[in-house]
Amino acid sequence: MKPVLTRSLLGLGLGSTLLAAWFAPAPASGGVELAERTRTAAARAPAAAASSPAPVRAAASRNAEVLRIRPREGAGAPGETDTIFGATRWTPPPAPVVAAPVAVTPPPPPPPPQAPPLPFRVLGRYDDAGELAVFLQYNDQNLVVRVGDTVAQNYKVESLQGGTLTLVYTPLNQKQTLDVGGSEPRDTR
Hints:
Oligomer: single chain
Largest sheet: 4 strands, antiparallel
Number of strands: 7
Shape: elongated
Order of helices and strands: HHHEEEEEEE
Low-confidence stretches: none
């Protein structure tokens, strides 16, 4: 069906339902009254039991006994989970598996802290009448360092022997070396 035709039929049905409801006659009694047969048996039972003789009351109690829920006869022991549609197991259940204790080895201790790599770049060295100085580049700064100076807040120049500059990383008190060039003066002839 086309959507336009479907909508038209639904609209026509809605309109006819509204017209039928508008022109429907008013109820004669002004309300809805339930018939005797639609009342529940429980509502009628106290009134009937009080006015009925003893044999009728006995029959009513037998009917109540029939309606009571009772466990199945021949069911398994209490606590067993027998069901009508339960699976039947023909083999005995497997023995529980006991896991062997696993030896837990503690993780190795973390390595001791190490000083970061040296952040300096050697630009050159200078010998002024026996006093050696080394030119270093640190970030964008050019520095001149001598033995005993503190550089970049964390490094202290400990010694300058031959072509090796020894620095101490002060937070961890670890020594690091930096190659600064040859130990002999060059002949510039």
